[in-house]
Amino acid sequence: MEQSILSVKNICKTFPGVRALQNVCFDLRQGEVHALLGENGAGKSTLMKIIFGLVKKDSGEIFLRNSELKSISPSKSYENGIALIPQERTLLTHKSIAENIFLGMEPAFVSKKEMCAQSMEMMKRFSMQISPDTPAAQLSAGMQQTVEIMRAMNRNAQILIMDEPTGGLSAQEVKKLFEIIRTLKEQKASVIYISHRMEEIFEISDRITVLRDGKNAGTFDTADITKEKIIELMAGKKISSQNQNKNCPGEEILQVKELCTNKIHNINLTLRKGEILGIAGLLGSGRTEIFECIYGINRDYRGKILINSKDCTHHSITDAISCGIGLVTEDRKRTGLSLKSSVAKNITLPMEKKIFRYAVLNSKKAHAISLEHSAKVGLNTSDMSFISGNLSGGNQQKVVIARWLAKGSKVLLLDEPTVGVDVNAKQEIHQLIRQYCNGENAVIVASSDFPELLEICDRIVVIARGQVVKELENKGIDEKILLGYATSAGGEKI
Ligand SMILES: Nc1ncnc2c1ncn2[C@@H]1O[C@H](COP(=O)(O)OP(=O)(O)OP(=O)(O)O)[C@@H](O)[C@H]1O
Ligand SMILES: [Mg+2]
C-alpha cells in the first residue's frame, strides 16, 4: 500500500452554535487524488482550513510524513509544501495576474520581468492568451479562479488542496485543470479535491471520503463505489429521483431585441411566462453581459428591452427590480451577498417597502419573511441572525436565491445558479426553479454546466463569441450537441 503523506486524527471543531467537525480522521497518500465530498455545511472547507492553518482546531492531531504538526499557519504550510486553493476567491483585484500569481513571494525573490515570463508560461498551460499585466478585476469569474489555481501551483506544493476549484469553469478549462492534476500525480504530488460535481470526482479521484454532519461517513476506492451510494452516504438516507414536470409557457414576459454592446452582437431573446430558458455558453461568451443589460448594471448598449410589453430600455437597477427582475450573479461573494450581514438582512435587502413601516424596520416581519424563504430553499440554519459569511458556500447561494423568491420577482436571471451547491441541494434548487415558473413567472439560466441546463430548461439558446448561434427546444438533445454549437464560432474568447 502507498505511503500516507498526511493524516489527521480525531479533529474536532465547534463554532458558536455549530459543531462543524467531530472526531474526523482522514489520510492522504502520496501521489493520489483524494476527493472529499459532503452536503453543504458538512465541514469540508473547515477541515481543509484547519489543515492549512486558516482555522484553529479545538482538538485532534495532524501528521505530515509521520511527524506531528504542532503549530500550523499558512506560511508554515507553504514551507511544508502544502497549498490551498480556497473556496472563496482571494485575488487582489487591483493587482495584475502576475502579481496575484506571485503574491507573498514577490520582488525580493523574483524580478518583475521574471514574474511576467513565468506567469506567461503557466497561463499558456491554461490557454489564457492575455497579458499577465491585466488587472484581476477585468477577468471573468472563471478566469479569476484559474489565476487562483496558478497561484497555488506556483508554490510547487507536494500537497495541493483544491476546494471546489471548478466552480464557474467551463468544460474546456476543467479539462485543462485535469491534465495538470494528472501531471502533478506523475510527479508524486497529492491532491485533496473537493467538488459537488460527481462526474469530476469519478474522472479524477483515486479515493473518496464522505463527510456527513462533521463526521467521516466512510473512505472508499473510487473504483469500488457508485454515485448513488455516495449520494446516499452524504444525505444519510436514500434519495428518490424527482420527476420532471415541464411547464407550459404562456405569453411573453421579456423581450430582448437586437441587443449590442462591445461584447455582444445583435442578441434577440424572448421569454414566456412559465418558461425556463437556458443560455448555454462558455466563459466569456457574453452570457453575463446579457444579464447585466437586462438588470440595468450595464446601460451602455444598443437595442431594446421590453418587460411585459413595456419599453424598459436603459432602465436602472432600481427600475429593473421594481419591474420584477431579480439577478443571481455568478460570483455571489463579489456582487451577490453582503458577507458581514445576517441572513435576514441579505434576504430582505431589496424589499424595504415590505419590512419598513413609517421608516421603522419591522424586524419581526423581516425575520418571518426570511425564515419562510430560507426554509423554502433548504438553508441549513434557522438562525436568521447568522452572519452570512460564516455559512458554507452552498448555503450562501441559497440565501441569494431566497432573496428573490421573497421579493416576489417575476423574472429571475440566474448566472451559474448551482455552483458550489451539493447534489441534493441542487435537486432542491431545480425543483424550486420549476415551482417558481409555474404560471406567472419565468427564469433565464445561464450556465457552463450543460447537463444542468438540459435537466431544467424548456428551451436553450446557445451563444458563442457574443452571438446567438443556435436556439433549441430541449427535446432529444444532449451535452455534445450543445458543446458543438458553443464552440462552433471558434470557441471561447479569452
Ligand atoms: N467562522 C465560522 N463561524 C461560525 N460557523 C461557521 C464558520 N465557518 C463555518 N461555519 C459552519 O460550520 C459548518 C461547516 O461549514 P463548512 O464551510 O466547512 O462546510 P462545507 O462542507 O465546506 O460546505 P459547502 O459545500 O457548502 O462549501 C457550517 O454549518 C458552517 O455554517
Ligand atoms: Mg466549503
**Spatial order of the strands forming the largest sheet:** 6-7-8-3-9-10
Bound molecules: adenosine-5'-triphosphate, magnesium ion
Number of domains: 2
Proportion of residues in extended strands: 25-35%
Keywords:
18 helices, Rossmann fold, six-stranded mixed β-sheet, 2 domains, binds magnesium ion, binds adenosine-5'-triphosphate, 494 residues, alpha/beta
Description of the molecule:
It is a single chain. The protein folds into two domains: 4-235, 3-Layer(aba) Sandwich (Rossmann fold), CATH 3.40.50.300; 252-486, P-loop containing nucleotide triphosphate hydrolases (Rossmann fold), CATH 3.40.50. The chain is 34% helix and 25% strand. It is built from 18 helices and 22 strands. The protein has helices spanning 44-52, 74-79, 97-101, 112-125, 141-153, 171-186, 198-204, 227-235, 287-294, 317-322, 332-336, 343-348, 352-355, 363-376, 393-407, 423-436, 450-456, 479-486, and strands at 4-15, 18-29, 33-37, 59-64, 67-68, 82-85, 159-163, 190-194, 207-212, 215-221, 252-260, 267-272, 276-280, 302-307, 310-311, 325-328, 356-357, 360-361, 411-415, 442-447, 459-464, 467-473. The radius of gyration is 23 Å and the shape is globular. It starts with a strand and ends in an 8-residue tail after the last helix. The relative contact order is 0.12. The model is unreliable at 490-494 (pLDDT under 50). Bound molecules: adenosine-5'-triphosphate and magnesium ion (MG).
